Amino acid sequence: MKPLVGISCCSKQFGIFGMPNHAASDTYVRATDQVVHAVPVLIPANGDNADIETLIERIDGLILTGSRSNVQPSLYGGPPHAEGTPEDPARDAVTLALIRAAVASGLPVLAICRGLQEFNVALGGSLHQRLQDLPDRLDHSTPIQPSAKVRQGKAHTVRLVQGGWLHRLAETTEIPVNSLHNQGIERLAPGLTVEAVAPDGTIEGVRAANVPGFAVGVQWHPEYDFETDHVSRRIFEAFGDAVRARLAGARPGLTVAAD
To answer: How far apart are CA 230 and CA 249, in angstroms?
Structure first.
């Protein structure tokens, strides 16, 4: 029997009438199918109606997805967003509670882009809202234009912390990554350890220390290039190992997947 992996959805409007929908990109589904070898289960952004306890009992792993929307500043004591900044309070209401329950229970968590930001906020950290407005910071956002190769291509490198989980997984101290975000970690949440840092000092990778299971976040999008990028694939392989260990009843720690 395959494990079940929950994939967080955004609330979005689609179609000519702007009907509300729950959506997650196909890239997360394909990575779950092809590398994690699990059954993808989309978790709706249904706000306070979400049954967190049931989700934790039924799924064997959790992927927190990226999104154009930003985490609400009120959740980390930040100033209001600039007018026009997309928010998704229904998603926030699900994911932050789900993250805290997942980490406490040892449910394997892989947090990606917005998911990393949610991960940090849920555990007590804060965010910069627009990194590009800060002095001496890179513009980590990518121009909206039709070429996926440009949007999703490598944008800068990150330095992997010596001896950390990502360093051991990648077997190198620096890797190139894509970059499609405005928000970034400001105050690191208690209990999180830095795993990767951009050239401008932006935290790009974290893991939860002293918790019962696998709990990792990256600011870039490994789901975009898991078919061609070795490190991206290894991230999903390691998550898959933890998910299967969870299903089998073993403790899903931060192991490094074998070649």
So the answer is: 29
Domain assignment of residue 253, yes or no = no
pTM of the model: 0.92
pLDDT at 258: 43
Determine which one of 118, 195, 204, 223 is catalytic. 223
> Is residue 221 among the annotated active site residues?
yes
Residue 119: its pLDDT value, please?
98
pLDDT of residue 17: 79
Q: Which of 128, 140, 181, 221 is flagged as catalytic?
A: 221
113 is catalytic: yes
Q: Would you say residue 198 lies in a domain?
A: yes
Regions of the chain short of the pLDDT cut 50: 258-259
Alpha helices in the chain (DSSP H): 26-31, 52-58, 89-105, 114-122, 148-152, 165-170, 230-248
The number of domains in the chain is 1
- Within-domain flag for 257: no
The three-class DSSP label of residue 125 is coil
Q: Select which of 9, 113, 204, 237 is catalytic.
A: 113
Domain, as residue range, for 32: 4-248
Whether residue 238 is contained in a domain is answered as yes
Cβ neighbours of 65 (radius 10 Å): 26
Which CATH number does the domain housing residue 191 bear?
A: 3.40.50.880
